[in-house]
């Protein structure tokens, strides 16, 4: 069976490589010729653990290939996955331009039945627009060719995307016909053999499931960040509170960690889009709006803790920022809290030294030459007045504090991810300021 994946970004490339690994013949398509040329040379457009090895293996074994033209390969495939971007518009709604471009290309060039599967995150009600775009092109051609549209939202975590695809909690599929259902069952059969469930539903429900899932996870994060703020005022310890409520089976412990706020390409965009969808339907999404408001405020928490540590005056202070990506194991800095903190530090006249294990190239695009880029965390702390931990990379967990103490000017550590023991750092001569703890 041969399929096409349109879009070679994070979702598209992982999806294509994983399906190829399961024995399917896959063509990944992208209009960006430079990206396709690089992929043919083994140069990945994203950082994701294991993706290069998986792509190289399946290219070598002949199951995975790349193209810049969907119309040229459409005759050879019966299933097309649309994994193109849906960037937010100014009002927070998802821009469906690229999704509809794929649909029109299919309508203009299909000669036989095609199942177009939307993998991109799209708002409820997108499927009819996709169907109309295909049908309009068929009408222009004066032909009557059967086709189906399905929804198959992704639930991949950056940094663990391959594992998530190969061992999913569930596969959600929205279909409108038995033919589409059978095709999707066939595609995902290798996964069901391992006991992973496929949940079939109508297309609108599948589209909503993606947004609802991300909004729920974002809600748990914002909830714990509000609890953390109250813990600081009340003299409680948010880590102990998390253990106490997380042991309740009705709640569980996942996504109950307080910190500097969530970022990335999914949660911020999807929460905003869900709020906008509610407005379009005449419904105020009060809980989801609160999640968004709390998170925007939380992104400034590390900055405010630094400012308080220096009695409101950061001018001329040197701050070492550890971690720039929105989470470990990715170079993604979209909506990263580190950007908010750094921008505010610079506005206050601080000097900022930064290091991230993989996001330095991306950081240079976003921050330009306004900060000092260092080769490791030890270079960032030379003559620094304070450290701000923004991303909980594993290599930051056990630094040589005695070595750091020798080169730092100050002794302030603002732990934006609550990975350090304040008592241990105190013994090393540092003052550790955590989130949600009275230290």
Structural commentary:
This protein folds into 3 domains: 2-201, Rossmann fold, CATH 3.40.50; 210-297, Orthogonal Bundle (N-(1-d-carboxylethyl)-l-norvaline Dehydrogenase, domain 2); 299-433, 3-Layer(aba) Sandwich (Rossmann fold), CATH 3.40.50.720. The chain contains 18 helices and 14 strands. The chain has helices spanning 10-21, 33-40, 51-60, 70-73, 97-109, 126-141, 161-166, 178-192, 203-234, 238-246, 267-280, 286-298, 301-309, 337-347, 360-367, 377-380, 401-407, 422-427, and strands at residues 2-6, 25-29, 64-67, 79-82, 114-118, 147-151, 171-174, 198-201, 318-322, 351-355, 372-373, 386-389, 412-415, 431-433. The strands form 3 sheets. It has a 6-stranded parallel beta sheet with strand order 3-2-1-4-5-6, sandwiched between helices. Helix 8 links the parallel strand 7 and strand 8 (198-201). Helix 9 crosses helix 12. The longest helix has 32 residues, at 203-234. It starts with a strand and ends in a 6-residue tail after the last strand. The mean pLDDT is 94.
Task: Please supply descriptive tags for the structure shown above.
6-stranded parallel β-sheet, alpha/beta, Rossmann fold, 3 domains
């Amino acid at each position: 069976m041969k399929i096409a994946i349109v879009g070679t970004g994070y979702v598209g490339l992982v999806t294509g490589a994983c399906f190829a690994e399961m024995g399917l013949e896959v063509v990944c398509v992208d209009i960006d010729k430079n990206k396709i040329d690089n992929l043919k040379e083994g140069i990945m457009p994203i950082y994701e653990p294991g993706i290069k090895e998986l792509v190289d293996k399946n290219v070598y074994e002949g199951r995975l290939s790349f193209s810049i033209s969907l119309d040229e390969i459409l005759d050879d495939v019966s299933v097309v996955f649309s994994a193109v971007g849906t960037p937010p518009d100014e009002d927070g709604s998802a821009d469906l331009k690229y999704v509809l471009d794929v649909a029109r290309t299919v309508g203009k060039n299909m000669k036989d039945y095609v199942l177009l599967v939307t993998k991109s995150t799209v708002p409820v009600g997108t499927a009819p627009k996709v169907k109309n775009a295909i049908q309009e092109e068929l009408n222009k051609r004066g032909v009557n060719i059967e086709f189906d549209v399905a929804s198959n939202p992704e639930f991949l975590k950056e940094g663990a995307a391959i594992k998530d695809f190969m061992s999913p909690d569930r596969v959600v599929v929205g279909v409108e016909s038995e033919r589409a259902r059978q095709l999707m069952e066939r595609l995902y059969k290798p996964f069901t053999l391992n006991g992973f469930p496929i949940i079939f539903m109508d297309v609108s429900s599948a589209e909503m499931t993606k947004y609802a899932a991300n909004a729920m996870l974002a809600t748990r994060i914002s909830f714990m960040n509000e609890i953390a703020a109250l813990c600081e005022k009340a003299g409680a310890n948010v880590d102990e509170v998390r253990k106490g409520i997380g042991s309740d089976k009705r709640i569980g412990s996942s996504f109950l960690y307080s910190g500097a706020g969530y970022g990335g390409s999914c949660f911020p965009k999807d929460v905003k889009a869900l709020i906008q969808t509610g407005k379009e339907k005449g419904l105020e999404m009060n809980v989801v709006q609160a999640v968004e408001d709390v998170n925007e405020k939380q992104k400034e928490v590390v900055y405010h803790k630094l400012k308080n540590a220096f009695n409101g005056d950061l001018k001329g202070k040197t701050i070492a920022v550890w971690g720039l990506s929105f989470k470990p194991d990715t170079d993604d800095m979209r909506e990263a809290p580190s950007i908010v903190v750094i921008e505010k530090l610079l506005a206050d006249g601080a000097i900022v030294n930064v290091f991230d294990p993989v996001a330095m190239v991306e950081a240079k695009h976003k921050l330009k030459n306004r900060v000092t880029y260092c080769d490791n965390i030890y270079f960032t702390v030379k003559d620094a007045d304070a450290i701000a931990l923004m991303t909980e990379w594993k290599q930051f967990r056990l630094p040589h504090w005695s070595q750091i103490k020798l080169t730092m000017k100050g002794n302030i550590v603002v732990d934006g991810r609550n990975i350090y023991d304040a008592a241990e750092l105190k013994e090393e001569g540092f003052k550790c300021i955590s989130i949600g703890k009275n230290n």
